């Protein structure tokens, strides 16, 4: 598990151990034992499943692809988490992502545990037929540990509704006569998916930023400006003024976040930069985000990389290197690509004073500590990117009831749930000097600890 996650969870546990109003019935040695159990439970996954998928390629070669399914903790409900298709997937990363899912679900009161999957491939290097084979084999190899009441995967980097449809079809075939609609979420709507699921994470990411600035800081501007809280001081500087925004990653999460920013009527945003694994596109007057979204839809998800391609879609932008987006002179930086993007190496060059983590774990501990020390407001992954799992929960519910909601009902419930969490967390954040990540972790760990104690697990 990554050092940052482990450290913050341990700090949260230490704070709870000292706070005798928390589980006051636990006293003396019993209290110490319970907290040692808690630390052990949270710092290790329940199970790590690993398989080597045997895949015949179209050209005749047969390869074996390492793949994972990690079950971190199921105290709150069945394991839940995406399956990442990426060449950099490794066991430690999948464990860390599963742990973040446990914390995320606890934070937003979603009745799921934490799980995650990974397949070590570059999906763009395989044909559609080969990818389908990979999905089918994944389900065959992990069938015993998956299911609507055991572990429910969803898309993550490199996967989407097409892959979830293939996987659900295989699950249905293997488990004939069993309920199957709740076995995978993020499916296409015709296959039992939820309206609004595709946009859910990106919408939620943007909503956390908008809600923090417009619905919390703005009405409390005077009080916050007078407080000594460093994050309050930063936030008030950004109320009611035009903001330059950059979005790293232009996939499922990033493209929707960029569109939300582009269309937002509540805040004067200008999306001046977006990026993917090939390029950063920059325009100081603002980019035409809908045109870029249309382009990626017909170009395997890639942004334009040449002046000719930009001209073709009538988009005016400078083509810069992929990494430049991170250190540009912008007010707000949305991170929606991969982990470990803000690091010890680039932390001193980061100019944005508000950072929103659409991706999981995009900020290393060194960068996080450094930026927090400087009063940068970082909306952490487990708070910002929970839209996907919240709507996955709604999809799972709809699948069980075979009753489907309208897109508007889905988005209203999504934003309501995120608002409820923000209403609990933000007053604490602006009231004490801890970074928002730590506030969120304390909240999640408190909920998990209480549930584990009541389930008799802390001995
Ligand atoms: P995605 O659709 O695969 O998009 C990933 C984006 O990041 C693509 O634009 C990709 O570019 C870009 N990218 C990849 N490597 C990069 C690099 N080294 N530098 C800059 N950009 C790079 O994945 P996603 O679903 O949007 O997920 C993005 C992040 O959000 C991940 O951390 C994921 O765990 C997290 N997340 C996703 C969901 C969800 O519902 N999808 C929910 C919660 C959290 P190319 O297209 O050129 O490869």
From TrEMBL:
Write the record's keywords in alphabetical order, separated by commas: NAD, Nucleotide-binding, Oxidoreductase
Cited InterPro entries: Aminoacid_DH-like_N_sf, Glu/Leu/Phe/Val/Trp_DH, Glu/Leu/Phe/Val/Trp_DH_C, Glu/Leu/Phe/Val/Trp_DH_dimer, Glu/Leu/Phe/Val_DH_AS, Glu_DH, NAD(P)-bd_dom_sf, NAD_bind_Glu_DH
> Where, in this chain's numbering, is substrate bound?
80, 104, 392
> What Pfam family is a match for this entry?
ELFV_dehydrog
Q: Where is the Glutamate/phenylalanine/leucine/valine/L-tryptophan dehydrogenase C-terminal domain?
A: 228-456
The portions of this protein that span the membrane are none
Note the SUPFAM superfamilies from the entry.
Aminoacid dehydrogenase-like, N-terminal domain (SSF53223), NAD(P)-binding Rossmann-fold domains (SSF51735)
Q: Where is this site: Important for catalysis?
A: 156
- Gene Ontology molecular function terms on file: glutamate dehydrogenase (NAD+) activity; nucleotide binding
Q: Where does NAD(+) bind?
A: 201, 252
User: Where are the catalytic residues?
Assistant: 116
Q: Name one GO biological process term.
A: L-glutamate catabolic process
Similarity comment: family membership:
Belongs to the Glu/Leu/Phe/Val dehydrogenases family.
Q: What is this protein called?
A: Glutamate dehydrogenase
Q: Which organism is it from?
A: Paenisporosarcina quisquiliarum
Lineage summary: Bacteria, Bacillati, Bacillota, Bacilli, Bacillales
């Amino acid at each position: 598990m990554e050092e940052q996650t482990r450290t913050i969870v341990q700090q949260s546990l230490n704070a709870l151990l000292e706070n005798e109003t928390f589980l006051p019935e636990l006293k003396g040695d019993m209290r110490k034992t319970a907290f040692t159990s808690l630390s052990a439970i949270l710092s290790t996954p329940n199970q790590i499943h690993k398989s080597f998928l045997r895949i015949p390629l179209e050209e005749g070669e047969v390869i074996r692809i390492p793949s994972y399914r990690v079950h971190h903790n199921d105290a709150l409900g069945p394991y839940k988490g995406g399956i990442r298709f990426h060449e950099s997937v490794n066991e430690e990363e999948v464990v860390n992502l599963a742990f973040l899912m446990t914390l995320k679900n606890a934070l937003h009161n979603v009745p799921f545990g934490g799980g995650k999957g990974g397949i070590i491939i570059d999906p763009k290097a395989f044909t559609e037929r080969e990818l389908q084979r990979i999905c089918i084999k994944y389900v065959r190899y992990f069938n015993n540990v998956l299911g609507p009441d055991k572990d429910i995967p969803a898309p993550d980097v490199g996967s989407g509704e097409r892959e979830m449809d293939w996987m659900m079809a295989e699950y249905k075939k293997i488990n004939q006569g069993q309920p199957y609609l709740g076995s995978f979420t993020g499916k296409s709507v015709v296959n039992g998916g939820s309206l609004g699921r595709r946009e859910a994470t990106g919408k939620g990411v943007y909503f956390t930023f908008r809600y923090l600035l417009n619905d919390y800081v703005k009405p409390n501007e005077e009080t916050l400006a007078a407080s000594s809280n460093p994050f309050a001081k930063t936030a008030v500087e950004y109320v009611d003024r035009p903001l330059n925004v950059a979005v790293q990653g232009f996939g499922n999460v990033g493209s929707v976040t960029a569109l939300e920013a582009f269309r937002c009527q509540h805040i004067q945003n200008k999306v001046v930069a977006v990026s993917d694994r090939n390029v950063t596109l920059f325009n100081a007057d603002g980019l035409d985000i809908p045109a870029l979204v249309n382009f990626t839809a017909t170009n395997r998800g890639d942004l334009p990389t040449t002046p000719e391609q930009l001209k073709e879609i009538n988009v005016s932008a400078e083509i810069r290197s992929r990494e430049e987006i991170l250190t540009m002179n912008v007010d707000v930086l949305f991170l929606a690509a991969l982990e470990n993007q803000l690091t010890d190496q680039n932390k001193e060059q980061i100019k944005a004073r508000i950072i929103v983590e659409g991706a999981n774990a995009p900020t290393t501990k060194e960068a996080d500590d450094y930026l927090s020390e400087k009063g940068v407001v970082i909306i952490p992954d487990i708070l910002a990117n929970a839209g996907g799992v919240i709507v996955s929960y709604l999809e799972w519910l709809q699948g069980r009831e075979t009753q489907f909601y309208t897109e508007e009902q889905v988005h209203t419930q999504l934003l309501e749930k995120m608002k409820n969490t923000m209403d609990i967390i933000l007053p604490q954040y602006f009231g004490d000097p801890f970074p928002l990540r730590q506030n969120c972790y304390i909240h999640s760990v408190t909920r998990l600890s209480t549930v584990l104690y009541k389930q008799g697990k802390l001995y």
